[in-house]
User: Which sequence fits this backbone?
């Protein structure tokens, strides 16, 4: 049977707020080059998910934040546009955070990084799960105040 690689990659995302604005990055590498998303990436072997979230945030945006807690867990199952077969499976542990320091600066594999207001979000194309996660995180942030 022809089967894709069956490893699930544990990954993190971090929804970082500065007031009402959320920090997003524009992906600079394939397969999602040019798309906006929350900062994040793979969890390294021996690294905790929370440490990975803060590391990825710093690596991609040069921003520091305080984690407030786990927001949600999402499966990102990616299929080939040509064959339709599953090529990658990421298990995304998304954390909500509050900005502490730093000016968003694109770094690592990000082409751009910036805080966006709720009205800015209406004008960009986001994965539906990212949009849902940002709203969940916004409610979690409000409940923590």
Assistant:
């Amino acid at each position: 049977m022809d089967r894709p690689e069956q490893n699930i990659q544990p990954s993190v995302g971090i929804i970082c707020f500065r007031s009402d604005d959320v920090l997003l990055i524009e992906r600079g590498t394939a397969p999602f080059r040019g798309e906006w998303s929350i900062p994040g990436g793979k969890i390294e072997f021996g690294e905790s998910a929370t440490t990975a979230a803060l590391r990825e945030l710093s690596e991609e945006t040069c921003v520091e934040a305080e984690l407030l807690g786990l927001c949600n867990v999402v499966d990102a199952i990616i299929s080939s546009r040509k064959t339709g077969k599953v090529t990658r499976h990421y298990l995304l542990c998304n954390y909500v955070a509050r900005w502490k320091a730093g000016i968003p600066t694109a770094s690592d594999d990000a082409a751009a990084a910036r805080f966006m207001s709720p009205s800015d979000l209406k004008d960009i194309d986001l994965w539906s799960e990212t949009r849902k996660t940002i709203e969940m995180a916004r409610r979690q942030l409000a409940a923590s105040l």
Observations:
- The helical segments are 49-61, 118-121, 128-144.
- The two ends are 53 Å apart (CA to CA).
- The beta strands are 9-18, 21-27, 36-37, 40-42, 64-79, 86-101, 110-116.
